[in-house]
């Protein structure tokens, strides 16, 4: 509730943003080195497995970003916190970009692995639905002359779209799909993961770097969105006073 105040949020974000930027660089440099050079090629996929170090972190961030949109949508609809709506406006294009990276890198990985760029299986289709949910949220926000009504409509779609997240997560277990099952499904699997530590280390480094990058981009965009709203509200007040 305290973070619902834009001024207080800006004050906190000015501290968090540079720290996350430093963390991103600190993780990205060793992550890229281990992913591209020190990690071994897969015995079946050979060097094409290195696409995993972009594809999987992008997928994780895309899901995490949408989860934050869904929660923000519920907060805005229930408690009427405008900052939650502005978070949706700020994060939707970022999540859309990470989902696009996930889809494109998955296609590039699928061609040498599966022999095809795309199949309409449950995992790929549900992630494509996630991309269209992001596009829909972004489009709804711009579809209204009254931007607050656009945020309200976007909040509804973000909240309703949460139902797609468990479908993405469990699609490889509920249906027979070409997509491989998750190598790390829970904390209990961490002790005996289905992926070698030489590959898991760069994967986690890249996942941490992508997460920190998302936080930096989201906070930067949110500060811009807040500033634009303040300018727009001031312009509307001046216009009303002049009538």
TrEMBL record:
GO molecular function, one term: heme transmembrane transporter activity
Membrane topology, from the record: Multi-pass membrane protein
This protein's record includes keyword Membrane: yes
Domain Cytochrome c assembly protein positions: 10-179
Annotated keywords: Cytochrome c-type biogenesis, Membrane, Transmembrane, Transmembrane helix
Regions crossing the membrane: 12-38, 58-79, 86-110, 122-143, 155-172, 203-224
Family, as annotated: Belongs to the CcmC/CycZ/HelC family.
Record's protein name: Heme exporter protein C
Organism: Micavibrio aeruginosavorus (strain ARL-13)
Lineage summary: Bacteria, Pseudomonadati, Bdellovibrionota, Bdellovibrionia, Bdellovibrionales
């Amino acid at each position: 509730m305290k973070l619902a105040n834009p001024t207080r949020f800006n004050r906190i974000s000015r501290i968090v943003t540079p720290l996350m930027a430093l963390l991103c660089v600190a993780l990205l440099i060793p992550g890229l080195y281990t992913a591209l050079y020190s990690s071994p090629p897969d015995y079946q996929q050979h060097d094409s497995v290195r696409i995993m170090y972009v594809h999987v972190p992008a997928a994780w961030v895309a899901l995490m970003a949408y989860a934050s949109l869904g929660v923000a949508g519920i907060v805005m609809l229930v408690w009427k916190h405008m900052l939650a709506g502005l978070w949706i406006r700020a994060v939707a294009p970022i999540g859309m970009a990470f989902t696009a990276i996930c889809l494109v890198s998955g296609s590039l990985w699928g061609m040498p692995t599966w022999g095809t760029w795309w199949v309409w299986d449950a995992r790929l289709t549900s992630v494509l639905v996630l991309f269209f949910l992001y596009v829909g949220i972004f489009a709804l926000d711009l579809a209204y002359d009254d931007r607050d009504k656009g945020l309200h409509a976007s909040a509804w779609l973000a909240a309703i779209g949460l139902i797609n997240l468990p479908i993405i997560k469990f699609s490889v277990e509920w249906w027979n799909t070409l997509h491989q099952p998750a190598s790390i499904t829970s904390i209990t699997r961490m002790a005996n993961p289905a992926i070698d530590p030489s590959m898991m280390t760069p994967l986690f480094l890249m996942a941490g770097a992508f997460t920190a990058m998302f936080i930096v981009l989201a906070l930067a965009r949110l500060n811009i969105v807040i500033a634009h709203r303040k300018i727009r509200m001031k312009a509307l007040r001046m216009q009303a006073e002049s009538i």
